[in-house]
Specification:
Helix content of chain B: over 70%
Order of helices and strands of chain A: EEEHEEHHHEHEHEEHHH
Largest interface: A-B, 31 and 30 residues
Number of strands of chain B: 0
Structural class of chain A: alpha/beta
CATH topology of one domain in chain A: Rossmann fold
CATH class of chain B: Mainly Alpha
Number of domains of chain B: 1
CATH architecture of one domain in chain A: 3-Layer(aba) Sandwich
Strand content of chain A: 15-25%
Mean pLDDT of chain A: 83
Number of strands of chain A: 9
Radius of gyration of chain B: 18 Å
Number of helices of chain B: 11
CATH class of one domain in chain A: Alpha Beta
Shape of chain A: globular
Largest sheet of chain A: 6 strands, mixed
Number of helices of chain A: 9
Low-confidence stretches of chain A: 222-228, 232-248
Mean pLDDT of chain B: 93
Low-confidence stretches of chain B: none
CATH topology of chain B: ABC transporter involved in vitamin B12 uptake, BtuC
Order of helices and strands of chain B: HHHHHHHHHHH
Largest sheet of chain B: none
Strand content of chain B: under 5%
Helix content of chain A: 25-40%
Oligomer: heterodimer
Distance between the termini of chain A: 32 Å
């Protein structure tokens, strides 16, 4: 039996006495492509940060490839939600992606790292921009650079926080094309507040609003969408159902 | 005009201008890109507490400011981690409490504090050899630390959260950066004083940032600019018999306005 990419048991998180996540039980298989959808403030980012080991849960158990999240960091790539950085921060595309190869204090980057950066930039079709200053890119290009930074470690689990928020609708198609190439090599989990944006591309959907409801394969959600989803109705009503579901 | 540099105090002032510009160019670049200018302002004002304690204990106030400003830098970075006091609030508190501690200790010190004013507003012409040695050693510590931790500082300045995900000890690195800010503050105290030094910290890097997108070049450019502008301020203050710290700040501000106008 292969290891699960993520395994979460009885996870609860309180923040300033407020319950943010309640009794979450959830797992992600290797090479799964999972979307977690839910309203803003529903705990999506918190859940990702717990998987990444940046936050520690109050109760419950989280394993990433059978290890504690902090020990599994080499196996994870992360695309944060809208980055706040100085508009003319002195860093170029290459240097940005290189930070994803960080090895530890006093350990420099090697030629192998340089090659990995170039490969990751090729994967996202941004290699010709490698010397460009980061803010001299369009939103979609910048997004690709940060995806490159996330995959440059050759992770087994790619975690993305609202990847659709900063790209144009036209870019979505190429984003999913990129994802379908990447998912041959890694499990992917993304969170989004917009079920419509998740589209037909993911394999599985879970809905998170403090509690998590796991729906499994997308097409299973066909019967009685509203009841199954347990989501606020406006969340699914603006995503057109036949865009979410395969033909049935 | 160059004959004014025949005086020994002028030569020392010139060396001081170079030494402060190194600290400002290197650490100031991080301060500007990481946007911790007001935090650095708090650290600089807090350093005055160390100066006051130095007077009280009868030790060199500049030396006494070193541990004091490092502790306040680390306190300000640490408070955010262990409590829900916002950084903004702790900046405001540390800013004035540091000054208050300095004033109280000077009060408690018998006699008159002759060069108190120079710690507040700077006095590059009264810099002595001991000051220069201290500044030189601190500059060396700063350069070596930045060289050793350049990857970490860049990653944390750019994206602190991501740097944690790749296993970088982000909090520790941030504290180290604040400690470097504290050391730079000490380098600058004698030249521009705790009240004015934030201008020297910020302006050379802010101007240089308009002309380069490479951090190393930014540091070099900011250092050179710092040397040129500080020296110019020094000469003008001598010619017009004005307070040196304030004159240097006005020269910096003018340069910033001109550069902004040319680029904008």
């Amino acid at each position: 039996m292969s290891l699960k990419a993520v395994e979460i048991n009885n996870l609860s998180v309180k923040y300033n006495e407020q319950l943010v996540l309640k009794d979450i039980n959830f797992s992600i298989e290797e090479k799964d492509f999972v979307a977690i959808i839910g309203p803003n403030g529903g705990g999506k980012s918190t859940l990702l940060k717990i998987i990444l080991g940046i936050l520690t849960p109050n109760t419950g158990d989280v394993k990433v490839f059978g290890k504690a999240p902090k020990k599994a960091r080499d196996l994870m790539g992360y695309l944060p939600q809208n980055l706040k950085f100085d508009h003319d921060f002195p860093i170029n595309v290459f240097e940005t992606v290189l930070t994803g190869r960080y090895h530890g204090l006093f350990k420099g980057y090697t030629e192998k790292d340089d090659n990995a950066v170039l490969q990751a930039l090729k994967d996202v079709e941004m290699d010709e921009f490698k010397d460009r200053q980061i803010s001299k890119l369009s939103g979609g290009q910048m997004q690709r650079v940060f995806i490159a930074r996330a995959i440059v470690r050759e992770p087994k689990l790619l975690i993305m926080d609202e990847p659709m928020a900063s790209i144009d609708p036209e870019m979505q198609h190429s984003f999913y094309k990129l994802m379908s190439r990447l998912k041959d090599n890694m499990a992917i989990v993304l969170v989004s507040h917009d079920v419509g944006a998740v589209s037909t591309h993911v394999d599985k959907i879970a809905c998170l609003n403090q509690e998590l409801f796991y729906h499994g394969p997308v097409e299973n959600a066909a019967n009685g969408l509203e009841e199954i989803y347990h989501c606020p109705i406006e969340l699914i009503s603006h995503g057109i159902p036949h865009r979410v579901l395969k033909d049935h | 005009m160059l004959e004014i540099f025949q005086y020994q105090f002028m030569q020392r002032a010139l060396i001081a201008a170079v030494l402060v510009s190194v600290a400002c160019g290197v650490v100031g670049s991080y301060v500007v890109i990481k946007r911790i200018v007001s935090l650095s302002g708090a650290i600089s004002h807090a350093a005055f507490g160390g100066v006051g304690i130095g007077y009280f204990l009868g030790v060199n106030p500049v030396l006494a400011a070193i541990p004091f400003s490092i502790i306040s830098a680390i306190a300000i970075g640490g408070v955010k981690q262990i409590s829900n006091i916002s950084e903004d609030t702790s900046i405001g508190i540390l800013w004035s409490v540091g000054m208050a501690i300095g004033v109280i200790f000077i009060n408690l010190t018998p006699g008159y504090a002759p060069d108190l004013f120079s710690y507040l507003f700077g006095s590059i012409l009264t810099v002595n050899n001991t000051d220069l040695y201290i500044m030189f050693i601190l500059d060396m510590i700063i350069i070596v630390t930045v060289y050793l931790f350049r990857r970490e500082f860049l990653a944390v300045a750019f994206d602190e959260e991501f740097s944690k995900v790749v296993g970088l000890p982000a909090l520790l690195v941030y504290m180290l950066l604040l400690a470097l800010v504290a050391l730079s503050v000490v380098v600058l105290i004698k030249v521009v004083g705790v009240i004015l030094l934030i201008a020297l910290f910020t302006i050379p890097a802010a101007i240089s940032k308009q002309y380069t997108y490479n951090l190393k070049n930014l540091m070099i450019l900011a250092t050179i600019l710092g040397i040129v502008l500080t020296t110019l301020g020094l000469i003008l203050s001598y010619i017009f018999n004005l307070a040196s710290g304030a004159t240097i700040v006005m020269v910096l501000a003018t340069a910033f306005a001109i550069s902004y106008y040319l680029k904008g």
